[in-house]
Design a protein that fits this description.
Blueprint: H1 13-22, H2 34-42, H3 53-69, H4 85-101, H5 109-119, H6 132-143, H7 170-182
Helix pairs in contact: 3-4, 4-5, 4-7
Length: 184
């Protein structure tokens, strides 16, 4: 299992609240996952497949989007702070939604984010049942690609046999998942 790295210094309250707004983190029933969401924001998104650098860049791009929306000067942006798992997953949820939005599916970033949480077997990590070690184990297994060939244990498990999902970048996993579940 990969070591899960902690991010230090990127706990800017307004930005974090803005992230939670994107995934309905303040709304029922998701407000009961504050410990999980905070933990995901403290874990650095790491990757072993070069193309997944794009997912990290997309997560960091959320910071720029936040600054643009709120007219915050570039001084607010702190370079060198790595992308968190939460940032990457939210940016990926935005991408999921955009992939299907043009085909008449409603705009719902939160749906995609929470579906990934469910697929990672983290829905039981409510504030009343939160276990840091379990969260780190699940995220560590995913980031180190210690999940099943079909993607079980990752955000995008497939029902059919095909290419080993442990060797496919996250974007291709997403495309396979969308294709299998929404275009058949």
């Amino acid at each position: 299992m990969a070591k899960v790295s902690k991010i230090v210094g990127w706990y800017i309250y307004d930005y974090y609240q803005w992230l939670l707004d994107k995934i309905d983190g303040h709304m029922y029933p998701y407000y009961d996952y504050s410990l999980l969401l905070n933990e995901l924001h403290s874990i650095e998104f790491t990757y072993g497949i070069a193309m997944d650098q794009n997912r990290a860049n997309d997560g960091i791009r959320l910071r720029v989007e936040y600054m643009d929306e709120n007219l915050i000067p570039d001084l607010f942006y702190k370079e060198g702070i790595p992308c968190s798992v939460l940032e990457m997953m939210i940016s990926l949820a935005v991408d999921c939604d955009q992939q299907l939005m043009y085909n008449g599916v409603t705009h719902n970033v939160a749906k995609w984010f929470w579906l990934m949480i469910e697929n990672l077997d983290l829905m039981r990590m409510t504030d009343d049942n939160f276990n840091t070690d379990y969260v780190h184990q699940q995220i560590g297994n995913w980031l180190s690609r210690n999940f099943k060939m079909d993607g079980s244990g990752s955000p995008f498990p497939l029902k059919t046999r095909g290419r080993d999902q442990r060797k496919v970048d996250i974007w291709m996993q997403l495309c396979g998942y969308i294709s299998e579940n929404f275009y058949r």
